Amino acid sequence: MEEIDHLGHERSKIEFDVEAMKIVWAGSQRALEVSDRISRLVASDPIFRKDDRTILSRKELFNTTLRKSAHAWKRIIELRLTEEEASRLRFYIDQPAFMDLHWGMFIPAIKGQGTEEQQKKWLPLAYKMQIIGCYAQTELGHGSNVQGLETTATFDPKTDEFILHSPTLTSSKWWPGGLGKASTHALIYSRLITDGQDHGVHGFIVQLRSLDDHLPLPGITIGDIGIKFGNGAYNSMDNGVLRFDHVRIPRDQMLMRVSQVTREGKYLQSDVPRQLVYGTMVYVRQTIVSDASCALSRAVCIATRYSAVRRQFGSQDGGPETQVIDYKTQQNRLFPLLASAYAYRFVGEWLKWLYTDVTQRLQANDFSTLPEAHACTAGLKSLTTSATADGIEECRKLCGGHGYLCSSGLPELFAVYIPACTYEGDNIVLLLQVSRFLMKTVSQLGSGIKPVGTTAYMGQVEHLMQCHCDVQRAEDWLKPSVILAAFQARAARMSVACAQNLSKFSSQEEGFAELSADLVEAAVAHCQLIVVTKYIEKLQQAIPGKGVKEQLAALCNIYALSLIHKHQGDFLANGCITPKQASLVNWQLRSLYAQVRPNVIGLVDAFNYTDHYLGSILGRYDGNVYPKLYEEAWKDPLNDSVVPDGYHEFIRPMLKQQLRTARL
Ligand SMILES: CCCCC/C=C\C/C=C/C/C=C\C/C=C\C/C=C\CC/C=C/C(=O)SCCNC(=O)CCNC(=O)[C@H](O)C(C)(C)COP(=O)(O)OP(=O)(O)OC[C@H]1O[C@@H](n2cnc3c(N)ncnc32)[C@H](O)[C@@H]1OP(=O)(O)O
Ligand SMILES: Cc1cc2nc3c(=O)[nH]c(=O)nc-3n(C[C@H](O)[C@H](O)[C@H](O)COP(=O)(O)OP(=O)(O)OC[C@H]3O[C@@H](n4cnc5c(N)ncnc54)[C@H](O)[C@@H]3O)c2cc1C
């Protein structure tokens, strides 16, 4: 049967080169080729099917995780996939699994915190999957406050061993992914005690399960922590609980790049900063920013295609009703999310560069950029995941009732995504780290230390405190210099106001506690400025392809102006813009929406997602929504029988009872 493209009319209107945009989104021609090839490989392999995920029991679901992971690993070896291809394979399989923590945290932690000797011993085993590792930091009683962890690792000089122990219930490790059922080893974060002295939290490699029969080793109690939010979703992951009862490990299993314990039990600290113990979190937070663009773009792709298919009201003379995407309210909700997906893509690319740069510097013992790398990864992780979680839910609402069906793909996407606001650092806790960094920057302004990198704008603080926005007409809001000046003035004024208010308290800590809500808002303003700046810098590069740069520029303006509109309270209260200028923002936004409207299907096609990856009937590439929704409904297990299983036991007696009552 001939396939009809129900979105063909939309595609015929596109004014830019979609293939060229695909390259921009993927990062390079080669990255697009890899992505395209691997996504098709996954889509065509029945073991990677995922359409039944929301109706599987927890055990069945976990079993598919094991099957998919083992099959993926087999394919990686058979096809000799490169690291980049393997990571694409993981992405398109699209099921959280213990492998994520093994490759995403266990291995990076050994690389970042292990000595050369330790890396030589453990990495080959981990790379060949002869051991499976997880990252066990969080405890039942403490997650955000890492310094508050209670697990102890006490050195015993008699045997040259550490004794791992969980002294209280709240010291039980709780949450680590892969810990519950799959991992054989863990990187355990615990307090190091030598000679009765507590040296704070350090990392230790600990074997948990036998490599022969997978049973827990003596002294170890271990299991899964239970069902999490939503059907399917993150329940494919075995987040675990773990307790130690005086478990002994050799001394050389403490990761010793940052500090060491000698054979005699002496504690030594190298000149590497203590914060490197937190280095793996910096690495993962950076990856989470790029992941945000993927999750948001996926939801936006579904909502955009469906909004072009869906029609409500407005039929003239019996003609078709209006496509819901043509309602200005729909555009005002959807297009800023589309723009955000592109914005997070570009800031994610930049953050990856920043992380690579700081890693190279660390290897050369240059620690100067570590505080900025920490602030940027923490802040952007927080900003992008919060906006993405809200954005996915908005996309569900943009799809009306059908968005609530699991077959829309949106409920599972939302459920799997929202913990990103919590894991790798609660978003508020992370923004408070950014605000500490900002307050330090402001306090050093008079001391001759020139702010650099993402805080360089603070160097012009005197100008930023009194400058006036130059906008007279709506089109003036299209000038990058005008947008940047407004965002810089807002961020600087909010930070300076916080610093001034902090100085009114007798202690810094008291001030921080009291003003934390304002400090968080200042941190958000700073992070939004980073995203806007990096997008504008991206547009200064050569971007080939007919109309591609124009579309990206329109989206950049939508991103920035929709933020000014949303946060106009900040901009107005701090005198960065006038009420008249705020209203011109809306005029300009409407005109930008009209400019991108014919191109939105092209802009989501450029993500190059397969129907398998999208996992959504509403987001199908061909827009053939209604017949497929109808077909899908009949596949529900409830429809296996015409009369439901409980009819004779429950419904029939009720009906008969009513009949008898009625006769009475
Ligand atoms: C089948 C295919 C196979 C192939 C597969 C291939 C690839 C797969 C790859 C997979 C995917 C890749 C990656 C993804 C992996 C996983 C992601 C998915 C799931 C997520 C799993 C979740 C894991 C976790 O959640 S782990 C636990 C995370 N926990 C936290 O984040 C805790 C948050 N708390 C903290 O970070 C800290 O406690 C704190 C809040 C920062 C406070 O710390 P404290 O020491 O008390 O600090 P302060 O006193 O405030 O500060 C002291 C000083 O230090 C500075 N600081 C703080 N942190 C850092 C840091 N990280 N780096 C540098 N500096 C830091 C701070 O600013 C201060 O500085 P100052 O003294 O100058 O002011
Ligand atoms: C799906 C998932 C997977 C995870 N995987 C892992 C893993 O693999 N390994 C691992 O070690 N951990 C893992 N975690 C744990 C995760 O890292 C922690 O849950 C996270 O760091 C938040 O810590 P918490 O749970 O202690 O939250 P809490 O700190 O208890 O937060 C509770 C509330 O208190 C607020 N709050 C806390 N401190 C402050 C403060 N100083 N100022 C203002 N407000 C504050 C928070 O904003 C939040 O609203 C995972 C968690 C989840 C949900």
UniProtKB/TrEMBL annotation:
It holds the Pfam family ACOX. Residues 480-656 form the Acyl-CoA oxidase C-terminal domain. Coiled coil: none annotated. Its cofactor is FAD. GO terms for cellular component: peroxisome. FAD binds at residues 138, 177. One of its GO terms (molecular function) is FAD binding. Keywords: FAD, Fatty acid metabolism, Flavoprotein, Lipid metabolism, Oxidoreductase, Peroxisome. Its main location: other. Gene3D superfamilies: Acyl-CoA dehydrogenase/oxidase, N-terminal domain, Butyryl-CoA Dehydrogenase, subunit A, domain 2, Butyryl-CoA Dehydrogenase, subunit A, domain 3. It is found in: Peroxisome. Belongs to the acyl-CoA oxidase family. This is Acyl-coenzyme A oxidase. It comes from Protea cynaroides.
